Amino acid sequence: xxxxxxxxxxxxxxxxxxxxxxxxxxxxxxxxxxxxxxxxxxxxxxxxxxxxxxxxxxxxxxxxxxxxxxxxxxxxxxxxxxxxxxxxxxxxxxxxxxxxxxxxxxxxxxxx
Length: 112
What we know:
single chain, Arc Repressor Mutant, subunit A, 5 helices
């Protein structure tokens, strides 16, 4: 994910087509390194595409998958619980993930 973050930083900085060297420079500036194979794969997959269009498409797919999972959890909530002590633990765990998503600006664990 750090390679994706470095690519996005390069694009946001005005470099529409970051090279492997550009990505490595960004990674080294924060004391990280990237796998050349991963960097080259990312560059080739985004070749000829607008990173903003790719993000918009991913956001709509994420929204669709989130709607599907919430429908499944509400259906599970309608069924009687076999063990009432398990329900609060699930609720607690769900709240923890929500707070970590908000700390990351709504991206959850996308960059870390």
